[in-house]
Amino acid sequence: MLKVINVVGARPNFMKVAPVVEAMGRRAREFAPLVVHTGQHYDARMSDAFFRDLGLPEPDVYLGVGSASHAQQTAAVMQHFEPVVVRERPDWVVVVGDVNSTLACALVCSKLGVRVAHVEAGLRSRDRTMPEEINRVLTDQIADLLLTPSADADRNLLAEGIPPKRIRLVGNVMIDSLFKHLALAERSKVREELGVEGRDYAVVTLHRPSNVDDAAALRRILSALSTLAARLPVVFPAHPRTRKMLAEFGLDEAVVRGGGLLLTEPLGYLDFLRLFSGARLVLTDSGGIQEETTALGVPCLTLRENTERPVTVELGTNRVVGTDPERILREAERALERERADVPPRVPPLWDGHAADRILDAILENVSST
Ligand code: UD1
User: Fold this and answer.
1) Element (H or E) spanning 4, and its range?
2) Which pLDDT tens digit goes with each residue over 191-212?
3) Fewer CB within 10 Å: N-end or C-end of the chain?
4) Which of 8, 13, 38, 41 to mutate for ligand 1's pocket (most ligand atoms within 8 Å of CB)?
């Protein structure tokens, strides 16, 4: 039996780890899973709500690292994670995505000689000003097993000289969570509570430092959103970083005053799923939401200059439109002109709800081949 530590740190990790831990629970003769939460995200709305909604077991170990600069946060995760690995002596550590906790834990393991599997390996935006791009590139260099969501990721890894035997295409595990929770999310009353049930509405999320930490950039995006909000309600669940910056720049009042822009607290997994799945349009700078909208056929505009998930543009509903207000409005107009039924979902191969079992199979095969 393999003892596996599954690491979670920040909000986008929970929906990727939940199906893996559940599959390990089902395959208890093969796997003994532990969950370690670094505490990178710690607010009830950024963390606890997701454990509840996704049925993730309480973490076996909570490192309580919290917010700090990148170097401090990464270092704190490493300092707190190392003794856990030394004590538990796992056969494998599974890290997911591209947050600071991902790289920090992978680095600890590589120095201790403990095998690491990276789920969502190989994605590249080719924009090294994004902290996540550095986390992705470095984690993929040191992980033993690179589990990719789509064929473009395999090509990226091969182009970086990574041997093919370390790479395995398993599909998108976040879509396992999405499909599993669709029916449950129907029970959410979030649309009624926000007064958008039965109406056309848009949903926006923003949290990238390049969009929200710079007053001019944030102001430009908000001006486009306010114009759009005159046409249909625009629901804006704001990340804590975004809230903080809106207040710091004195923009929170202006956002609310505009009328149609509905600023809310961050939503839990089921409420957010219920909300965006019924939207006419989603505008976002998140990586995961580009994939989730693709899987459900919801039109998505990505408010960034690039994406590490090109398959959502090639096959899915995503368009990368940048942050110029006129372009955002033009593209929003185009998207709103089309009926949603005109954009039937084209889900990339292996985004089928069964990636977690393929991840477990790949780990087992890797053990028997070494
Ligand atoms: C992190 C990830 C990013 C991911 C995002 C999802 C890195 C480099 N970035 O960015 O890839 O898309 O999570 O949310 O790992 N804060 C709270 N409560 C919390 C967490 C954060 O109030 O529970 C506030 C703090 O003021 C903190 C700020 O948000 O300083 C930023 O948090 P941090 O974890 O540093 O980065 P994110 O922007 O959340």
Assistant:
1) strand 2-8
2) 999 999 999 999 999 999 999 9
3) C
4) 41
What's the CA gap between 367 and 212, in Å, rounded? 44
Give the whole-angstrom CA distance, residue 246 versus residue 264.
13
Q: Is 181 a catalytic residue?
A: no
d(C-alpha 36, C-alpha 16), whole Å: 14
Sheet with 2-8, strands from edge to edge, namely 61-62, 31-37, 2-8, 92-96, 115-119, 145-148, 167-169
Token readout for 56 is 């993730």
C-alpha of residue 130 to centroid of ligand 1, in Å: 13
What does pLDDT average to over the chain?
95
Contact criterion met (CB below 8 Å) for 278 and 191:
yes
Select from 88, 3, 34 the least CA-distant residue to 367: 3
Nearest Cα neighbor of 291 from 236, 348, 207 is 348
Residues with CB under 6 A from ligand 1: 10-12, 40-43, 46, 67, 98-100, 131-132, 207, 239-241, 244
What is the structure's pLDDT at 52?
97
* pLDDT for the residue 223: 93
Length of the chain: 370
* Percent of the chain surpassing pLDDT 70: 96
pLDDT for residue 253: 75
Q: Is the pTM of this model over 0.90?
A: yes
Other beta carbons within 10 angstroms of residue 333's beta carbon come to: 11
User: What is the Cα–Cα distance from 231 to 221, expressed in whole angstroms?
Assistant: 16
Q: What is the pLDDT confidence band of residue 346, given thresholds at 50, 70 and 90?
A: confident
Give the SS3 label for residue 11. Answer: helix
CA 286 to ligand 1: nearest atom: 12
Identify the pLDDT of residue 369.
60
Question: How many CB atoms are located within 10 Å of the residue 83 CB?
Answer: 12
